[in-house]
């Protein structure tokens, strides 16, 4: 395997949160969009090879030390679409980032990964994810599966005053309950983020 020197995306969050000024406790928005569009490029390539990652989360995204490019790691639970499906009773993934259909053992192509990267983007945009209190991972999964109106209690712009409501629409489409209502593919998701950057971050 390739040796990569870098830090997980999670560590970037924690480093930012230690800043003295509250306005500095989030990653710069331009940097956030750049990182996510690069991740989407990598996922698009994987999906074109019929590979679905199924465990996209900040801990599985390594930021290379010198280039600062994000590298997706840990394809241990990835699914190759052209292969026979496995036991649907097995739940694979990390509860916070799992799409609702994934909880019942289904994979809806690349849109399952799109849900996960939508959750990661949400996490990068706000000081803290607006989640209900859960006693266990099972409780989180049950809530996510049954609550068709959305997993998060607030929208990004309600937690970060520097965001336009257009970002709520971009994130919201990625993490919507039904796979068919999400972006068609990672390229479409990327195009929306690039439009936001060109429109609001000149």
Care to describe what's here?
The structure is a single chain. With 202 residues, the protein is mainly α. The protein has one domain (6-200): Transferase(Phosphotransferase), domain 1. The chain has 8 helices and 5 strands; from the N terminus they run E-H-H-E-E-E-E-H-H-H-H-H-H. It has helices spanning 9-17, 29-48, 100-103, 110-125, 137-146, 156-159, 165-174, 186-200; strands at residues 6-8, 51-52, 61-64, 70-72, 79-80. The chain has a 3-stranded antiparallel beta sheet. Strand 3 (61-64) and strand 4 form a beta hairpin. Helix 2 (29-48) packs antiparallel against helix 4 (110-125) and helix 7 runs antiparallel to helix 8 (186-200). The longest helix has 20 residues, at 29-48. It is globular, with a radius of gyration of 16 Å.
